[in-house]
């Protein structure tokens, strides 16, 4: 049978994302963002995000259908992010998805946003081989996973014990007077900077033996170290070398992420690594992961830039895998689960 045509809906944070895939083939990926409305608050305001989803949903789905050249009747299934994320924001997407599923009489799949991020790696590529190690780095999560099956068997190896990596980027950007979201701003500010200018701490450096925290991460100490360094420089009246600070901070985050991901591949004898999540848009992370994985003989999959940050295509792609694997639809009885693990 032909690969399933699936529409994916993503509204967990500040992006209204509608994607359409046929199996692993990307047909449309349309995103409306309320980012600019949150910028002056220094972070996403839940109430504003929810209202923005409501306004953006109609135009976004219309644009996605046009881009894909399909109609709603053509769809084989609908997939929607049911969590984790902001409750009010999630409810807009879940409500809209249910309305579509009922009116069109199509099967509906509730999917986990975080698994969706890793699911982005199947789009436009060959099938992923399992087991694989996956590193998920976003604004809310930093998790190292052993994935035996993307749909039914994801084991958590380690995660951040304090701030998420994206959160660290956002906080350090703020400290440097750069706007939200901080990741792309730090990437830009780091151009021409020396990553070895300042030796910032590597939180929870890889312990030698298989002990507690081997695969866990910590970024709050790093953030504090950067804050202290910046403060001292300012107190001394010297000009702040923003490019060096940005490059050195970024180097510390990237070093720890890649070191631990490769260690997990080695320890577990799994020579495959998937990266997913907004922080994977980071230029230095992409470069260092590619270099070190090549040197270690690890096959690396990185989503294209547009599929790293929140989008509907990754949700559609995960939905298509659920359909292909013969999973039963979720029905209409599920809700938005802001704290879905
Ligand atoms: O996955 P995502 O779009 O939303 C969440 O599920 O959290 O990730 C957003 C996070 C933000 O913290 C943002 O600063 C970070 O991803 N980010 C980046 C870059 N682009 C986005 N971090 C580092 N470098 C980037 N180029
Ligand atoms: Zn996300």
Overall spatial form: globular
Unreliable sequence segments: none
Give the biggest beta sheet: 5 strands, mixed
Bound molecules: 5'-O-[(R)-(carboxyoxy)(hydroxy)phosphoryl]adenosine, zinc ion
Amino-to-carboxy terminus distance: 34 Å
Number of strands: 10
| Mean pLDDT rating | 94
Secondary-structure blueprint of this entry?
Layout: E1 5-10, E2 15-22, E3 25-33, H1 35-39, H2 46-68, E4 77-83, H3 87-104, E5 108-112, H4 113-119, E6 132-137, E7 142-149, E8 153-159, H5 165-175, H6 182-189, H7 220-235, H8 242-268, E9 272-276, H9 283-296, E10 299-301, H10 312-324
Parallel strand pairs: 1-4, 4-5, 6-9, 9-10
Antiparallel strand pairs: 1-2, 2-3, 6-7, 7-8
Helix pairs in contact: 2-3, 4-10, 5-6, 5-7, 5-8, 7-8, 8-9
Bound molecules: 5'-O-[(R)-(carboxyoxy)(hydroxy)phosphoryl]adenosine and zinc ion.
Zinc ion is lined by residues 113, 117, 138, 277-278, 310.
Task: Report what the structure shows.
The chain is of the alpha/beta class. It has two domains: 5-119 and 308-324, Nucleotidyltransferase, domain 5; 129-302, Nucleotidyltransferase, domain 5 (2-Layer Sandwich). It contains ten helices and ten strands. The strands form two sheets. The protein has a five-stranded mixed beta sheet, with helices on both faces. Strands 8-7-6-9-10 form a five-stranded mixed beta sheet, sandwiched between helices. α5 (165-175) packs across α6 (182-189), α5 (165-175) packs parallel to α7 (220-235) and α8 packs parallel to α9 (283-296). The radius of gyration is 20 Å and the shape is globular. The protein starts with a strand and ends in a 17-residue tail after the last helix. The model has no long low-confidence stretch (mean pLDDT 94). 5'-O-[(R)-(carboxyoxy)(hydroxy)phosphoryl]adenosine is lined by residues 13, 138-140, 166-167, 169-170, 181-184, 187, 277-279, 281-282, 309-310.
């Amino acid at each position: 049978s032909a690969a399933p045509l699936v529409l994916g809906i993503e509204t967990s944070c500040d992006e209204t994302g509608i994607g359409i895939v046929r199996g692993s083939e990307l047909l449309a990926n349309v995103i409306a963002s309320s980012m600019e409305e949150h910028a002056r608050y220094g972070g996403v305001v839940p109430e504003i995000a929810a209202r923005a989803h409501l306004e953006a949903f109609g135009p976004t789905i219309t644009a996605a259908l046009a881009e894909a050249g399909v109609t709603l009747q053509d769809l084989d299934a609908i997939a929607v992010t049911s969590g984790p994320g902001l409750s009010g924001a999630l409810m807009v997407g879940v409500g809209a998805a249910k309305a579509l599923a009922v009116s069109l009489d199509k099967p509906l799949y509730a999917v986990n946003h975080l698994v969706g991020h890793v699911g982005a790696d199947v789009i436009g590529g060959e099938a992923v081989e399992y087991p694989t190690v996956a590193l998920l780095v976003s604004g809310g999560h930093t998790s190292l996973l052993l994935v035996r099956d993307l749909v039914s068997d994801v084991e958590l190896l380690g995660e951040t014990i304090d701030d998420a990596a994206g959160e660290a980027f956002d906080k350090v950007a703020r400290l440097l007077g750069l706007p939200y979201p901080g990741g792309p701003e730090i990437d830009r500010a780091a151009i021409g900077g020396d990553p070895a200018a300042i030796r910032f701490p590597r939180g929870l450096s890889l312990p030698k033996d298989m002990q507690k925290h081997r695969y866990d991460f910590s970024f709050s100490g790093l953030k504090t170290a950067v804050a202290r360094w910046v403060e001292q420089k300012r107190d001394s009246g010297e000009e702040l070398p923003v490019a060096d600070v940005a490059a050195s901070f970024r180097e510390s985050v990237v070093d720890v992420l890649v070191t631990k991901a490769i260690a997990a591949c080695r320890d577990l004898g799994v020579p495959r690594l998937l990266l997913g999540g907004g922080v994977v848009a980071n230029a230095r992370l992409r470069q260092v992961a590619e270099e070190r994985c090549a040197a270690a003989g690890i096959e690396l999959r990185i989503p294209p830039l547009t599929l790293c940050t929140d989008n509907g295509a990754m949700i559609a792609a995960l939905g298509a895998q659920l359909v292909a694997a013969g999973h039963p639809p979720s029905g209409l009885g599920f809700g938005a689960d802001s704290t879905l693990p």
